[in-house]
Amino acid sequence: MEFTLQNNATDEFRAPAVAASQRALKAAGTFADPAAAGISYCLPHLEDAPAIRARMRLSISVAFFGALLSLLTSLALFAALGNGFIPKSQTATGVAIAAVVLGASLLLIAPKIESRYVERLLRSRRGDLWLDPGRKPRLVRIENAATYNKLKPIPDDYGAVIVHPDSACLQIEGITHRYLIYAQDIRTLTMNRASAPESFNLSYAIAGERLDLTIILFRSSLYGEIQSKLLAPLSQ
């Protein structure tokens, strides 16, 4: 597979890892097919990733603020009804209740819409990842571990994760980057116990550089599979 590279901003948190990956792959002589290099890397690979992220940011922001506006409207209506600012009627009460239901529904279905959009996008680009029924990709959000706790409209990346026990590596096919992580290059793997949904911190080495990621699961467990299928064999 030919890789399309794009220039990463130097202040982008993955920039040192990308530069190290490019140097290592050029030295290995396998730049056209990084998967054949047998080394861990992180590379940008979609020229239209900024436009995709902009559309996702707009869609998620509209859903969030729509839900917030509905809930605030319902609170204002209930307060006005309770204090006699507007006459009590079935219509006013019904509107307030409808606003509550709408706001709560938007908040509840937003993650499901988000995951379906991400899966559809990734399937359109790498549908081959879903061809093996015994190796179903897991959808994840990917964050800079240093800024994981900061409020963001959308995460730093989304991806589909596949564990390859035979190759002892973890493949993350992201929207903006591809991450290939060999077990021997994993430096830390720690669970965030208090997080919901499930998330864990993963750091790995790339030709002398270190990339610290926080992986957030949409659903299902991945942490245990990395431990049992990738890291456990190294200690045997």
Provide an overview of this structure.
It is a single chain. This protein has 236 residues and is α+β, with helices and mostly antiparallel strands. The protein folds into two domains: 15-45 and 132-235, Pleckstrin-homology domain (PH domain)/Phosphotyrosine-binding domain (PTB) (PH-domain like), CATH 2.30.29.30; 52-120. Helices cover 40% and strands 23% of the residues. It has helices at 15-28, 49-82, 90-126, 223-231, and strands at residues 41-44, 138-144, 157-164, 169-174, 177-182, 186-191, 199-206, 209-217. Strands 1-5-4-3-2-8-7-6 form an eight-stranded antiparallel β-sheet. A hairpin with a 7-residue loop joins strand 6 and strand 7. Helix 2 packs antiparallel against helix 3. The radius of gyration is 22 Å and the shape is elongated. The two termini are 34 Å apart.
CA-based shape: elongated
Largest sheet: 8 strands, antiparallel
- Unreliable spans: 1-9
Number of helices, where a helix is a run of at least 4 consecutive DSSP H or I residues = 4
Cα separation of the termini? 34 Å
CATH superfamily of the largest domain: Pleckstrin-homology domain (PH domain)/Phosphotyrosine-binding domain (PTB)
CATH topology name of the largest domain, in short, is: PH-domain like
* Total tally of structural domains: 2
Summing up helix and strand content along with how strands pair, one would put the structural category as alpha+beta
Number of strands: 8
- Rg on CA atoms, Å: 22 Å
What sequence of helices (H) and strands (E) makes up the elements? HEHHEEEEEEEH
**What portion of residues is helical?**
25-40%
- Give the overall pLDDT as a whole number: 77
- Bin the strand percentage: 15-25%
CATH A-level architecture of the largest domain: Roll
CATH class call of the largest domain: Mainly Beta
Strand order of the largest sheet: 1-5-4-3-2-8-7-6
